[in-house]
Structure formats: structure tokens, C-alpha cells
Design a protein that fits this description.
N-(1-d-carboxylethyl)-l-norvaline Dehydrogenase, domain 2, alpha/beta, 368 residues, Rossmann fold, 17 helices
């Protein structure tokens, strides 16, 4: 059955979603705020999106013409059953504010990926007096490995076999999945939005691989690489930071995935270590490095990933020396205090909560 879907964001992920879901037979409205509208203007001129590579449903890739392409976000979300927010975490708030003002009661709002977006949005809704009006949820990662390829073209190199999803509160995860699995049967239930955000593999892979290759990136710009150019020593750093992340996650999740386990689930590969596992993922065989250190691999995954997790660690009394080191290197390299600008436990409105209160909130929505 066709679903009315609004996709908020027209970058790599948004265009891939719009083309993929359109070809699957859903009514898709692709939108972005005017300040993010460059891609939309090109797509409007082109008349749609050409999907290359693979699709999530097995539908044949080709030309997709969404039902609507517009910078009028309010118009795009009107009457939609599902709102998919597909922008970097640092761009989420502008869409949260529009949805809080213009969204309709009962709509499902999904952050792809979350990066603690569900908690941030829930706080905004409480402030606006709209708690309970929406069914909020998030994924742990973007479902695709996708890149745009010139005017009107997007290439999906791979689709994750399984992708954890959770609602806030998590008692509504099944209710959300009843609708969302018509779009993506790959979605599978996670324990809660803390798991989907803390278990996000990108916050480990992206910033560490970028920072460890910063000299080469700054000397020659974007370059063709394989599997993020992860060497054995870089993989060991990832494993150390991932161990700290896991220790924090275990405090409020009945189960949680290591980086290696996440890759096993998402890409159906097997490996004993980060290094071995990453080099088995065919979607990462050939890719381009970031053009500079202002790339979202640093400017998103540090302040809206590692900073957030480290702040939760501080809240729980768990030391994170490896995580702290990566945050400090990124802050020094870009001359930005990412702890000050990032999404912290305090900014999410959970700093005062005990473990029990935090679990109760993410499970049942009860704020104490």
C-alpha cells in the first residue's frame, strides 16, 4: 500500500530516499528549507532524480519523479503520514521547529540517523506544549551507502540488510514499525533511542579515520581510498573508543552492539576485529576521502556523537579518555570547542536524571 511520505533534506541521503521510495510506489514529497535548497533547484530543473546502483526493494533503478519538490516545508508535510528527516544533526533543529509549528497530530517523525535527535525533538515539543502529538523515532544509521553523482543522479552502492529503529517512548516502537516496514522492511526494533544513538557506528568510523588521515587530506584534498584507509593501528584506536562507548551503553540497554557486531548485522559480514570486518564490506571498496576537516565526519560526528556520549559518560561517572582524546584533537584541529557547541546531556534535558529515570523516560515517556 502506498504511503504519503515527506522527506526533509535533499542531500545524498534525502535524494536516495526520495528516488528509492518513489520507485517503490509511494507518494513522496521532497523538501528542504530555502537556505538548503541548491539541490532542490537542480532537481526541479531536471524534473526528478535518476537512481543508479541498487534499490531497497529490488525495484529496477531508473528515473524517479517525486510527487512534490519544494522549499515550502509546511506544504510538503501537510497530510503526510511519515516525515523522514534526512539531514546532518547540526541541521536538524530548523526542521524540528517547523514540524513543531506546522506538523499534524499523529504523524510519524523519523530521524535518519538519530544522533540523539529524538531526545532533542521531544524537548522542543515539551517547550511548545505539543508532547504526545507525534510518534517520534530514529534509526542508528542511514539505510544506504549513497552518493550523488552530478545533476539529478544519485547512486546507492548498498542497502543495509537490517537497521535498528526505536521510538520515543520505546513502548511505541512496534506501533511505528507497523507503518514504517511498508517503506523499509529492513527496519528492526532496538531497545530504545539511547541504543540507536549510542550504538551509531558512524561516530566511531568517520571522525577517527578522518582525523588519522588529516595530513593527507589537507595536502591533496579528497582522494580515492579503500575502506576509509583504516590501518591496523587506526582500527585499534577505534576499538578502544568503541569499548568506552559500549561500557556507557550497557548501563541503560539490555543489549548493545559493538562496532564489529553492528557491521555484522548491517552488512552481513564476519570478522573478529574492526580491521578485518571493515575490509569485508564491499560498499567501502572504493570511496572518496573528505575534502577537508570541515566535513560532517568531523563537524557532525564529533559534537553530535562523541561529545554527547562522553557527556552521558560524565553524567554516569564513567571515564572516557580515548573518546576525550579524539574530541580534543578535533577541537584543536578545527579551532572549535566542540564540547561547548555540541549536543550534551544537559542540552537534551537529561543531565539531572538517574539511570532509572532515564530508562523510564525513554521506555514510557515519563519525565521525572
Amino acid at each position: 500500500m502506498a504511503t504519503k511520505v515527506a522527506i526533509l533534506g535533499a542531500g545524498h541521503g534525502g535524494q536516495a530516499m526520495a528516488a528509492d521510495l518513489t520507485l517503490a510506489g509511494h507518494e513522496v514529497r521532497l523538501t528542504a528549507v530555502p537556505e538548503h535548497s541548491t539541490n532542490l533547484q537542480l532537481l526541479t530543473a531536471f524534473g526528478g532524480i535518476i537512481l543508479e546502483g541498487v534499490s531497497s526493494t529490488g525495484a529496477k533503478p531508473g528515473f524517479a519523479k517525486p510527487a512534490m519538490i519544494t522549499t515550502d516545508v509546511a506544504a510538503a508535510i501537510k497530510g503526510a503520514q511519515v516525515l523522514l528527516v534526512v539531514v546532518p544533526a547540526f541541521a536538524q533543529e530548523v526542521y524540528m521547529r517547523i514540524i513543531a509549528k506546522e506538523g499534524e497530530k499523529g504523524q510519524i517523525v523519523v530521524f535518519n540517523p538519530g544522533k540523539f535527535g529524538s531526545l532533542a525533538f521531544a524537548k522542543i515539543l515539551r517547550e511548545e506544549g505539543r508532547s504526545g502529538d507525534f510518534l517520534i523515532g530514529e534509526t542508528s544509521s542511514l539505510i544506504y551507502a549513497a552518493k550523488t553523482r552530478g545533476l539529478g543522479h544519485v547512486n546507492i552502492k548498498a542497502v543495509k540488510s537490517e537497521l535498528p529503529f526505536a521510538a520515543l517512548p520505546s513502548v511505541r516502537t512496534g506501533e511505528a514499525l507497523w507503518i514504517l516496514m511498508d517503506l523499509y522492511p529492513q527496519f528492526c526494533p532496538a531497545f530504545g533511542v539511547l541504543q540507536t544513538s549510542v550504538d551509531a557506528p558512524g561516530m566511531i568510523i568517520h571522525p577517527i579515520s578522518t582525523l588519522m588521515n588529516m595530513s593527507r587530506i589537507e595536502q591533496i584534498g579528497p582522494y580515492r581510498n579503500s575502506h576509509y584507509d583504516i590501518t591496523a593501528s587506526v582500527a585499534r584506536i577505534m576499538e578502544r573508543v568503541d569499548h568506552e562507548r559500549m561500557e556507557i551503553a550497557h548501563r541503560f540497554c539490555r543489549e548493545t552492539y559493538s562496532l564489529v557486531e553492528s557491521m555484522h548485522v548491517m552488512y552481513k559480514v564476519k570478522g573478529e576485529s574492526v580491521h578485518d570486518t571493515m575490509y569485508q564490506i564491499s560498499a567501502h571498496n572504493v570511496q572518496m576521502a573528505p575534502e577537508n576537516l570541515q566535513h560532517r565526519y568531523v563537524t557532525e560526528d564529533i559534537p553530535f556523537g562523541l561529545v554527547t556520549v562522553a557527556s552521558i559518560g560524565t553524567m554516569l561517572g564513567i571515564p572516557t579518555p580515548g573518546m576525550d582524546a579524539i574530541i580534543e584533537i578535533a577541537s584543536m584541529a578545527n579551532d572549535v570547542d566542540y564540547r561547548a557547541t555540541g549536543r550534551t546531556a544537559e542540552k537534551l534535558g537529561i543531565r539531572h536524571m538517574s539511570i532509572q529515570a532515564l530508562v523510564e523516560y525513554t521506555t514510557h515517556g515519563t519525565v521525572s
